[in-house]
Amino acid sequence: MLSKDNCSKVKNTNLTCPRQRGFTLIEILIVVAVLGILAAVIIPNVVSMSTTSNTAAANTEVQNVQLAALAYLGNTSEWPEDTTTTGFTDYLSGGLRANYVFSEEGQIVEVNTTMVDYPWPATIQFDPASQQWEKIDEVTPVTTVPPTTTVPPTTTVSPTTTIAPTKTIVPTKTIGPTKTIAPTKTIAPTKTVAPTKTRVPVEP
Fold first, then answer.
1. CA–CA dist 67, 91 (Å, integer)
2. Beta strand pairing status for 124-127 and 108-112?
3. Is the dihedral of CA 142, 143, 148, 154 positive or negative?
4. Rounded Cα gap, residues 179 and 104, in angstroms
5. Is residue 173 part of a domain?
6. Where in the sequence is the domain holding 77, given as residue range(s)?
7. Is the pTM of this model over 0.70?
8. What is the pLDDT of residues 53-74, one digit of tens each?
9. For residue 87, how many C-alpha atoms fall within 13 Å in the half-sphere facing its CB?
10. What is the pLDDT of residues 150-179, one digit of tens each?
11. Is residue 179 part of a domain?
């Protein structure tokens, strides 16, 4: 038996060449199924780990912002309005991935992620009640009750009376009196007189 390299060079010989064998359809389907199972198991875990790490990093950022706000209060005797207040970044090291708004008591009441170049992902959300970042599914939804609207009293409309359409009567034309035609006179039929027969005398 020839090797695979020599088989392509030698032709018209009685020696047999090794057969080239590929993957069958069943083998390819098995590999695809295994890859699909691995992806279904691994991808959710990777996303969950990424969300957990982002939550921890965001809470570390909140602690740094709160310490910087205390330092700002100690030097200016007032709380900053937000993290963009002039001089506030002097008490921070590094950049922020969100803009934090403070109340008059120094509590973080609002977080805006649209004002920064590299914001925190949408899978986490800041909870003002706990002053921490949490996963979206862990944040207790706040039910907002819409204000009640006063409905003005309805005005009762009297029913309308439907007037039947009037019928227009076409005036009739008066026909003049008919003229009486005199009866025609009947002429009696003439009697036809039969012609008289003339006898010819016969000679004896």
1. 8
2. unpaired
3. positive
4. 117
5. no
6. 24-138
7. no
8. 999 999 999 999 999 999 999 9
9. 12
10. 555 555 555 555 555 555 555 545 455 545
11. no
